[in-house]
Specification:
The structure holds 2 protein chains of 2 kinds. Chain A is α/β, with parallel strands linked by helices. Chain A has 11 helices and 9 strands. In chain A, helix 6 runs antiparallel to helix 7. In chain B, the strands form 13 sheets. Chain B has an 18-stranded antiparallel β-sheet that branches. A 6-stranded mixed β-sheet of chain B has the order 5-6-4-3-2-33. In chain B, strand 36 and strand 37 form a beta hairpin. By secondary structure, chain B is mainly beta. Helix content of chain B is 15%, strand content 44%. In chain B, 40% of the residues are buried. The chains are: A alpha/beta, B mainly beta. Chain A binds chain B through residues 1-2, 5-6, 8-11, 14, 17-18, 21, 24-25, 27, 30-32, 34-35, 39, 43, 47, 50-55, 57-58, 62, 85, 147, 327, and chain B through 307-312, 329-332, 334, 336, 341, 366-368, 386, 388-389, 391, 545, 548, 809, 811, 813, 819, 821, 858, 860, 862, 888, 890, 892, 898, 932-935, 937, 940-943, 945, 947.
Chain lengths: 339, 1013
């Protein structure tokens, strides 16, 4: 009889409340064939999402042994090789994936991004290129942090001397050379393993920089005096520019409450940094490398602090500058197939 | 006279309640099982009676030599001779030690041994390295000296004193000189991180109590000399029963407790703080692999094992408030896969040796599985979990080996190497997962541990204990005779592993001032590089896959009171020891030898065949007076034999002039437990006159005398089946309303044999606030086929069959909250049925205690329990851990034949002419019984079932749980008979249901003292 009465809606409600606690009681049991290529592929994607690329690579390498004709698996494997710094393996795996799955937009994007970094691995793709189509299954977007080598072979170059910069036109209220040398030395000291010599930066003779760069004896003697393996010199310019003008802005009218587009005159100021760096080998005085960096930042209003403007511009180019003498890391988007 | 069913309906409810059996289950509980049949013998040594069994005979000479050596040493230091013979009970392994009945509680793996002042017993397992075993004998024997010195063979002194743990354990540790480099690490770390307690105020006993207690005795000896030590012990003994540690400190040293604490703190700081200046912290070498989450601040991860890919780390963890295993991301420390998932019944406990310098986890070479050992029943089983889904793949029992630890998976995936004990010797064994073949890899008499395979599977590194040192050895995996010692000296060199190229052996060693630091031994040059110089300690070095041409290591380090996992890239070594320097060291350390080596006398061996009982507890004698002036008394005495296998309980109770007696004998020697009991129970009777209100005390309301036997078979730790049989004689008086309005108390006598059985299950895990996760149940039946009933000049024969189920389920929600569910039913069939009650307390809140009764009772409760207030501070003290709960209670009680008795709506208490027509008589002047309907279909609400919901809070005050609840009754209806026409109830036409006029609306506040179900 007790059961009979429980068939009524109200006791069923009580029963439902009672039973609602039960899901907490028993966990969900899931069973899967975890060593099948499909399971390994999925598990690898999960690992890659968590940044566990070696784990992902190990799983996909096992999966490809039994599912060698799966282009999606090849693509994933290529990305994992790339993450592991195994460039040649990555190149081969991308080529194989592209060959097996030529219409895949994901494979194509991955490979092209990879080849942009490693143009030496570029090969002509025979035949007509079919139009790219997006994969309909699950695709995971991941970010790959790829190490990039330094531009200069830094073997034996540990002690670095940074000279004063040659300044085109000295800005007001700012010792540009002092600030740039300071910020560069601090950055390299903190983020590279180089020994940045802690000396008063030597001034360069007043002569055209190109003439000076050709004078290997000068650089050799300078390096010898400071016991430097590498000398870094530079030419810099820091300017402001008026960028004021009329702009269109959307505003909410305080009278009507409607959004209206207005044209207003806005005062703006831009900061421009132009930096040319030269890297000279201390032992021979020869120019090893030179690079040019420039940047511009525009701020609303006038009177934005110049020093802050300079540092913000430098921060934007600091990674690239550091990458000349020290290995760096680039973040690259990649697509992985989950199935 | 057969018990009249209808007469129950007219019995006075207030009086009847006294006769009801409250519907609550018997105690649950897990099972302690004696798996082995120990054939005990006694060896009469000069000062000891050594209890051993045949399997221990080869170790007996060592046991006697160790015990007598320590006796001689301690009696000289303490200048004291023990006048009684010391009972030394030894077990071959810890697994066998855990089966002892001397202590009826479960013995965790961290309990090394114990001593008891009662019966002057020392209970010691023997599966330790010889030097550590010798120290363990010293520790426990110091306790026996303490018992002799302090208690002077007086049970009364033993029970009345409450010696602080730091004194008892600190002295035992200090006298035994059992402090290892790992112990010193704990103290050093506590000093560095400012965790020194005011020692004289310490009341708790935990691992730190041992360590700080040891340090306190070292401080006393350093400052006041050995004489100062003896003076302190003498003063402590003098004021033992005052339970005031201040006094012996003052009398021995002339300073008060606070000054003693200050000087002790300064002593430790002077000793250890300089180390901080010259040593480094783990963060100086690398970064911690941990999830940056303040909510996980108290999570401890230890015993890290790196996956083959190097991206994952399997660890043991306290994350889920139990000891569990999980896989972490080596990148950020986040949980990648839980493995054991917490509070499982697939095994009893995970086995760990991390705090003895052992490894605990291993990965399969393909990274698919993680293996570890766990205690299950009387053995340790190898648990193999899938790393992909975190599911249990295989449970491997390895026969013939005990104390398995530190599994290491071979590179070909077929074999597990591990540490284990066979015939009392600890060696490295291998177990083939396919052929199940077991091999002894080391085959020596030394204590071997920590196996680790080379990457080609040809060599196995391991630790060998030699004398007081642990060295790294390497053995050919196919030829146990080809062993090579790799490290030398008197240090402990633990947890060796190969580098990935097989050219380097990483390990941790305390060679540098007793502090464990990471070392790298080049197998090519023999040079040893010290990689770290930590103030705490570093363990479990494992090489990560090459990272851009640089070697990286994962390791665990002890700092700020716990182990943490780090990764580092070794830079310049902290020190280098060239191979040439090592060769100057002695190649062979000598095995440990005790100062005295005694040979055995065969005549001193006796069988253990005479059982002598002794007092096992402090006799509990309670005397009190109830608020009505009734004198109450209670005394319990527990007797046991020396090994705890035979136990007797005597319990005496007296209430006024009525005395109760209970005796039970239990035989616990084997897995099948049996016993017998005799019970004589009497209760007196109070009833209040309805007319005058006067309290009437009759003589005896109820008496029962029973004799019987019980037998129980535990299936495992959690489940058992039991049976009982016996004979009961009982009598009771029951109030019956007489036609003249008076109450008569006819006596009914019953005699019957009975049988019963019960199935019990209990997997509940507890936290400090009570049950937390698991389930408990008891399903039982009691059958009395021939109940002889007599009352006055009438007699009859009846039978009864009682069936009971009490099921409780606990499911954790968060660290301190849970769902608790209870479902209980009690059914008594047959003409001699029992009556049960429910209502009130936490059975059915919002109603009175035992408000409803019947020979069928069912109730269920669902509660969500959660922390409410952690502490309320009052000027007079602090009230801690106030917890809240929300509940829904549902209950019903009725009689066989679907008869319902309303507690309030009885004709006895209600005028028949009451317009509510609550009850009525038929034309023959018989009471028309109410029929039971749990649910009222017509009105769409509860009928005779009752339910209430609400919330409440509770707090422990000593052993009492004080609870306040606020309940709302759900609406229900009551069956009445409409007699408005002729004044007579016609059951066919006049019965209908109305809203229960006794229903209370609004919040009903109740207070009760009862422990949560």
């Amino acid at each position: 009889m007790l059961w009979k009465t429980l068939q009524h809606p109200r006791p069923r409600l009580i029963l439902a409340v009672w039973l609602s606690a039960l899901p907490a009681a028993w966990g969900v049991v899931h069973a899967a064939e975890e060593t099948s290529p499909r399971a390994l592929m999925r598990y690898g994607v999960e690992a890659a999402r968590g940044g566990l690329w070696r784990e992902a690579l190990a799983r996909w390498e096992r999966a490809v042994q039994t599912d060698a004709e799966n282009p999606r698996l090849r693509n994933n494997l290529a990305v994992a090789y790339e993450a592991a710094g195994r460039t040649a393996d990555a190149g081969r795996a991308y080529a194989e994936a592209r060959k097996q799955f030529p219409e895949s937009k994901e494979v194509r994007d991955n490979q092209e991004s990879f080849l942009a970094l490693h143009p030496e691995l570029k090969e002509d793709i025979p035949g007509p290129v079919p139009p790219a189509t997006k994969h309909k299954g699950k695709v995971a977007r991941v970010t790959l942090f790829v190490p990039t080598p330094e531009h200069i072979d830094m073997t034996g170059l540990r002690h670095v001397l940074v000279t004063k910069m040659v300044i085109d036109e000295e800005p007001d209220e700012l010792d540009l050379s002092k600030e740039l040398v300071g910020v560069l030395r601090r950055d390299w000291r903190n983020r590279t393993s180089l020994d940045i010599l802690d000396v008063e930066p030597p001034a360069l003779p007043e002569q055209p920089i190109r003439d000076l760069l050709a004078n290997t004896g000068f650089w050799r003697k300078l390096a010898e005096r400071y016991e430097a393996d590498l000398v870094v010199a530079g030419e810099a310019g820091f300017k402001t520019a008026d960028r004021s003008g009329y702009v269109s802005v959307d505003e909410v009218s305080p009278m009507t409450g409607q959004r209206v587009r207005r044209t207003r005159f806005v005062t703006r100021e831009a900061f421009l940094l132009d930096l040319h760096l030269f890297f000279l080998k201390g032992e021979t005085g020869e120019l090893l490398y030179e690079d040019h960096f420039s940047g511009e930042h525009t701020y609303d209003g006038a009177g934005f602090d110049r020093l802050s403007g300079l540092f913000m511009l430098y921060d934007e180019m600091a990674g690239d500058i550091r990458g000349i003498v020290s290995p760096g890391v680039r973040s690259l988007p990649r697509s992985l197939f989950e199935e | 006279m057969i018990r009249p069913r209808r007469a129950l309906g007219v019995a006075a409810a207030a009086a009847l309640a006294l006769l009801l059996l409250p519907a609550q289950a018997h105690a649950f509980g897990k099972n302690k099982i004696v798996y082995q049949d120990f054939k005990w013998s006694i060896y009469k040594a000069p000062h000891f009676d050594v209890y051993y069994y045949p399997e221990e005979a080869p170790m007996l000479e060592q046991v006697v030599s160790f015990a007598e050596s320590q006796y001689t040493r301690l009696s000289q230091i303490l200048d004291h001779e023990i006048k009684f013979r010391i009972n030394l009970i030894v077990y071959r392994t810890h697994a066998e030690f855990e089966q002892t009945n001397i202590s009826l509680g479960f013995i965790p793996q961290y309990v090394a041994a114990f001593s008891e002042p009662l019966a002057d017993r020392m209970v010691v397992p023997l599966d330790l390295p010889p030097d550590e075993l010798y120290a363990l004998f010293g520790h426990e024997l110091t306790h026996v000296f303490q018992f002799s010195l302090l208690y002077q063979e007086s049970v009364s002194r033993a029970f009345r004193s409450n010696a602080p743990g730091w004194v008892m354990e600190g002295m035992a540790s200090y006298m035994a000189q059992d402090e290892s480099s790992l112990d010193l690490m704990i103290i050093r770390d506590a000093v560095i991180y400012g965790l020194i307690p005011p020692i004289h105020r310490v009341q708790v006993t935990n691992f730190l109590t041992y360590r700080f207690g040891h340090a306190a005795f070292a401080f006393i000896e350093e400052k006041y000399g050995q004489e100062g030590l003896r003076t302190f012990i003498a003063e402590f003994r003098k004021s033992l029963l005052t339970n005031n540690i201040e006094k012996p400190i003052q009398d021995a040293f002339g300073i008060d407790g606070d000054e003693f604490d200050r000087q002790f703190k300064k002593y430790l700081q002077k000793k250890y703080l300089p180390i901080l200046l010259e040593k480094k912290e783990p963060q100086d070498y690398g970064h911690e692999i941990a999830k940056k989450d303040p909510r996980e601040a108290d999570v401890v991860n230890f015993s890290p094992a790196l996956s083959p890919s190097g991206d994952l780390i399997a660890v043991l963890t306290t994350r889920w408030r139990d000891l569990d295993a999980c896989i972490l991301s080596a990148r950020d420390g986040k949980v990648w896969r839980p493995l054991t998932k917490g509070f499982t019944n697939k095994y009893e406990d995970l086995v760990y040796g991390a705090f003895q310098g052992k490894k605990d986890l291993t990965w399969s070479p393909d990274g698919d599985m993680v293996a570890m050992f766990a205690r299950k029943e009387d053995e340790r089983v190898l648990l193999i979990y899938g790393a992909v889904h975190g599911d249990l793949k295989q449970r491997v029992s390895i026969p013939g080996i005990d104390d398995e630890l530190s599994p290491a998976w071979s590179p070909d995936k077929n074999v597990i190497a591990f540490e284990g004990v066979r015939d009392g010797v600890t060696d490295i064994f291998t177990y083939n997962l396919h052929t199940k073949e077991i091999k002894n890899l080391t085959q020596d008499t030394f204590f071997d541990s920590n196996p680790a395979w080379s990457h080609d599977g040809k060599q196995v590194l391991y630790n060998r204990r030699i004398g007081p040192a642990t060295k790294v050895f390497m053995v050919d995996a196919n030829d146990p005779t080809r062993k090579v010692q790799l490290t030398f000296g008197e240090s402990d060199d633990l947890m060796p592993t190969f580098s990935r190229d097989g050219k380097t052996v990483y390990y941790t060693s305390d060679v540098d001032g007793g502090i464990y630091n990471l070392h790298a031994l080049s197998l090519e040059s023999g040079d040893i590089r010290r990689l770290t110089s930590l103030a705490g300690g570093a363990f479990t070095p494992q090489e990560l896959p090459d990272e851009g041409g640089k070697t990286s290591l994962a390791f665990s380090a002890y700092a700020e009171g716990r182990l943490k996992i780090y990764r580092m890239q070794p830079g310049e070594p902290e020190g280098v020891k060239l191979a040439a320097d090592q060769s100057q060291e002695p190649a062979d350390l000598q095995p440990f030898e005790p100062p005295l080596r005694l040979s055995l006398d065969e005549d001193a061996k006796k069988p253990y065949d005479k059982i002598h009982f002794h007092l096992e507890n402090a006799p509990s004698v309670l005397v009190g007076v109830a608020d009505d002036g009734t004198l109450l008394g209670n005394a319990t005495v527990l007797l046991s034999d020396l090994l705890g296998d035979n136990r007797m309980v005597f319990d005496f109770q007296s209430v006024s002039t009525f005395s109760n007696f209970f005796f039970q004998y239990i035989h616990l020697k084997n897995r099948m437990q049996w016993g017998g009991f005799v019970r004589d129970y009497r209760d007196y009777y109070i009833a209040q006159s309805v007319n005058t209100g006067a309290v009437a005390r009759t003589n005896e309301s109820f008496s029962t005398t029973a004799v019987g036997g019980t037998i129980a078979w535990p299936f495992n730790r959690y489940y058992r089946i039991s049976g009982s049989a016996g004979y009961t004689k009982r009598s009771y008086t029951r109030p019956v309303l007489q036609p003249n309005g008076a109450i008569a108390y006819p006596t009914t006598d019953e005699n019957f044999p009975f049988v019963g059985w019960a199935l019990d299950g209990d997997t509940t895990r507890y936290q400090e606030f009570g049950p937390y996760h698991g389930q408990r149940y008891q399903l039982s039946q009691f059958y009395a086929p021939t109940v002889h009933i007599s009352s006055g000049d009438q007699s009859a024969q009846a039978s009864t069959l009682n069936t009971q189920l009490d099921y409780r389920l606990y499911r954790r929600v968060t660290a301190r909250s849970l769902f608790a569910i209870r479902l209980a039913t009690y059914i008594s069939n047959g003409e001699a049925y029992n009556i049960y009650s429910t209502g009130g307390l936490n059975y059915l809140r919002g109603y009175d205690f035992r408000d409803f009764y019947g020979n069928r009772v069912a109730y269920s409760n669902i509660e969500f329990r959660f922390p409410l207030v952690d502490a309320l501070v009052f000027p007079v003290g602090i009230l801690r851990d106030i917890r809240g709960f929300a509940f829904l209670d549902v209950a019903a009680a009725w009689f066989q034949g679907d008869l319902f008795t309303h507690p309030d709506a009885t004709p006895y208490l209600t005028q028949l002419q009451d317009p509510k027509h609550l009850y009525a008589l038929d034309q023959n002047n018989n009471v028309v019984p109410r029929s039971f309907h749990f649910w009222d279909d017509e009105n769409d609400k509860l009928g005779d079932g009752r339910a209430a919901y609400g919330f409440g809070f509770n707090v422990f005050l000593g052993p009492f749980q004080l609870t306040w609840s606020y309940a709302h009754q759900l609406e229900n209806t009551l069956e009445v008979c409409d007699v408005s026409g002729d004044g007579v109830c016609n059951p066919q036409t006049d019965i209908r249901r109305i809203d229960d006029p006794f229903h209370k609306s609004g919040s009903i506040g109740q207070f009760y003292i009862a422990v949560d179900f």
